[in-house]
Amino acid sequence: MPTDPTTLVIPDLAGKAVLVTGASTGIGAALALAYARQKCRVALHYNSSREAAEELAKTIRDDGGEVFLTQGDFSVPADVERVVEGSAEHFGRLDGLVNNAGGMLGRVAYAEQTEAHYDAVMDLNARSVLTASRRAIPWLKRQGGFIINTTSIAARNGAGGGAGL
User: Fold this and answer.
1) Radius of gyration for the chain, computed over Cα atoms and rounded to the nearest angstrom
2) What pLDDT score was predicted for residue 160?
3) Per-residue pLDDT reduced to its tens digit, 63-86
């Protein structure tokens, strides 16, 4: 991997296996790349952005990193469990979990929001964090691993711009 003297190097991360959910674009992609540049083995989760995930995986591999691509719909608990378990099994360990998958699933006014829409939003943004963390904990305990949960400004302001009006 390229060495840049202005880039922070954390030697303790080298060789660790880290699953980053929602890692094909945005913050998740940046985190996956950053972990790879710390010489972590990265499980890169994506849902629908396959091309972006494959492009990022190629970048990581071209830089000499190790990456495992895994797809799953994180509004479906069985997919969450499969992604976590498959990532851990692929590397034979799991040292870190970054819960980053999430989304608004559309801007729907409260008066028009259905129970099904609410459940889908909660499954993706809240239940997936619990499910992934619960599934990862036995693996993480073996390594003394970590969990990082990301969120968005929508957690504070309801995403504005038409959501929840």
Assistant:
1) 17
2) 56
3) 999 999 999 999 999 999 999 999
Residue 155 has pLDDT above 70, yes or no: no
What are the extents of the domains in the chain? 11-153
Report whether 66 contacts 42 (CB < 8 A).
yes
Rounded-to-integer distance, Cα 25 and Cα 84, Å: 19
pLDDT value at 38 more than 80: yes
Structure tokens at 89: 């099994």
What Cα–Cα distance (Å) separates residue 47 from each residue in 28, 56, 79, 82?
A: 12, 14, 10, 13
- From CA 115, how far away is CA 56, in angstroms rounded? 36
What is the pLDDT, as a whole number, of residue 5? 54
Q: What residues contact residue 11 under an 8 Å CB cut-off, 6+ apart?
A: none
Residue 150's pLDDT band (boundaries 50, 70, 90)?
Answer: very high
Topology of domain 11-153, per CATH? Rossmann fold (3.40.50)
